[in-house]
Prior knowledge:
Largest sheet: 3 strands, mixed
Radius of gyration: 23 Å
Strand content: 5-15%
Number of strands: 7
Low-confidence stretches: 1-5, 15-30
Distance between the termini: 42 Å
Mean pLDDT: 93
Amino acid sequence: MKTLFKPLTALLCSTLLLTACDKPAAPLNTEPAAAVSVAVLDEAAEHYVKLVLALGQYDSNYVDAYYGPAEWAEAVKQQPQPLPELLAEAQLLRDALQAHSETDAMLKLRLHYLQRQLTALISHADTLQNGTAASFEQQASELYDTQPPQQDLSSFAPVLAELEQLVPGEGSLTERVVAYRKNFVIPADKLQLVFERAIAECRDRTLQRISLPAQENFTLEFVTDKPWSGYNWYQGKAYSLIQINTERPIDISRAVDLGCHEGYPGHHTYNALLETELKQQRNWVEFSVYALFSPQSLIAEGTANYGIDIAFPGEQKLAFERDVLYPLAGLDPSQAASYDRFLKLMARLSYAGNEIARLLLNGEIDEEQFVALQQQYLLQSEAEARQRLRFVRSYGAYVINYNWGKDLVKQYVEQASSEDERWQRFISLLSTPKLPSSLAW
């Protein structure tokens, strides 16, 4: 079958990439890496985008967003590329890029970005070809460019003990937590009003710090039967479709959380800035596609979750919820402070979810044990635990991007001492090709 792209040998041996293919190969490590040129990166970037689109034909979750040339997307549909051929091309392209170096700060980030994104593509393509999922650790390293800390589930016992003292009622701790949280559920007929007000506040606070395109906008939809609680489907031209899953009750704290995470200064802001700063102004075509299972996702999810804290520092989220959202939802504002204390304790259990996912993906527990452990350590209802099971089965080790990603972003941003400097560091993550392994640069 003919390839969608120029023959790989021609690509890799062009004057753009490897100028000496007709010469005997030099011994390894005897010469410094050749400086990369913009032309090299532009050609490699186009090839990378087409490889992502081609791999998306084998996994409907893989291409999270695409707003590049329509003919590229149509070509992969009309002429699907065999997985072995796609995998070989990606490996050779990655190897060719690894023969280059760069000293300019932005081009160095761009080169590194393409190398690591291709490594993730290769790993995911290999998994699809073999039909066997990689281990949790392999996914974390190859797909997300990191290795999160590992914790024994017993280490969460002190937090559970604190919750035992905090949450009133009868029955097991899980039963009491599930019952307690029902007091803070947004009524179905108030969801639209509460979410629109929360997102408006997130947007106002973000625009005080970040300039977005004048035409930026979004549509809010409520959906059901999804493995996730919220999703941003970025459409290009600074426009997003934000969906909120209502199949499970939504508590009042999630309005600001999802408003920031999916919208401002989270995914919508991140994608709009990448499109404006990198695709449009620099013509870096690799930022016309978003491969979900890639290092970019750790930055995307990490900034989206940290974005809640930077937009609502200190007690400002609690104050806004108590004074504005609780009354809109018809909930008792006098309970806001105690519920906030409860949620901060619950947040300390989030890494238990990583460990339970690790056990499942590594074959150490079965699905029923997964559900039981989610109920025991995350204090979820059975329905919530089974929804989480669907998520982990669909997205694997992606779970690390939310909490570990947030912690890495937090460490990077909070190296700055002033609020203005912290915002500048945060914005740099939203508008440059930073990845987990380049955060220290």
